[in-house]
UniProtKB/TrEMBL annotation:
It comes from Actinomadura darangshiensis. Pathway: Cofactor biosynthesis; riboflavin biosynthesis. Keywords: NADP, Oxidoreductase. This is Deaminase. One of its GO terms (molecular function) is 5-amino-6-(5-phosphoribosylamino)uracil reductase activity. PANTHER family: 2,5-DIAMINO-6-RIBOSYLAMINO-4(3H)-PYRIMIDINONE 5'-PHOSPHATE REDUCTASE, DIHYDROFOLATE REDUCTASE FAMILY PROTEIN (AFU_ORTHOLOGUE AFUA_8G06820).
Length: 216
């Protein structure tokens, strides 16, 4: 995020907040996970592939008996997802879409053969999603955003660790998306996160927090 807490600006072009070195670090974190989750808004806005970029890391995963890539996961309330998005068309690992009943019934035929649509009932609740992923063998889930998904997981107190990279500039536009939206967060002045690590990545700063669920 920017120094004032934004994850993009308000222009049509995607703002590059990170660096080559940090993207490689992110790739290494991905390689140690079982699944990766983004919101439907991120699928629409960024069209991410969500693959492990390093050939060496992919080979190491296969050598350990793991799929080369992570299971991809997204959440959608509206069902507004393009079957041609790279989320669905790249990578050989499973793609899972969690949606409430009214959306799932309409979405499943459109994504047939591309992804499994999981009906979450009347609500799209984090505990239900995590429970279903755990039943599928997912032990370590990487949540990459955007702001709505960050808010959803943090307010649900479902985050073990937060890796926050701060870029050395400001956005200053209240219409731009922020790292989180309004919400009631258990990570409060009365229950602060614990800072575990500070790392310099060029002009970026990585702050690694234990956020709640895994603090012990």
């Amino acid at each position: 995020m920017s120094a004032d807490g934004y994850i993009d600006d308000a222009t049509p072009e995607r703002l590059r907040l990170s660096s080559t070195a940090d993207w490689d670090r992110v790739d290494a974190v991905r390689a140690g996970c079982d699944a990766i989750l983004v919101g439907a808004g991120t699928v629409r806005a960024d069209d991410p592939r969500l693959l492990i970029r390093s050939a060496a890391r992919r080979e190491q995963r296969v050598a350990r008996g793991l799929p080369a890539d992570l299971t991809k996961v997204t959440l959608t309330w509206s069902g507004d997802l393009d079957p041609g998005a790279r989320f669905f068309t790249t990578g050989e690992s499973p793609k899972l879409v969690y949606a409430p009943s009214g959306t799932a019934g309409e979405l499943a035929p459109r994504l047939d053969g591309l992804a499994e649509v999981v009906d979450t009932g009347d609500h799209l609740a984090v505990p239900a999603v995590l429970g279903d992923l755990a039943a599928r063998g997912v032990r370590r889930l990487m949540v990459e955003g955007g702001g709505g998904v960050h808010t959803l997981f943090l307010t649900a107190d479902a985050v073990d660790e937060l890796q926050l990279v701060v870029a050395p500039f400001f956005i200053g536009d209240p219409s731009a998306p922020r790292f989180v939206r309004s919400g009631v967060f258990p990570q409060s002045p009365e229950r602060p996160m614990r800072l575990e690590e500070v790392t310099r990545i060029g002009n970026l700063a990585l702050l690694r927090y234990l956020a709640g669920a895994g603090r012990g």
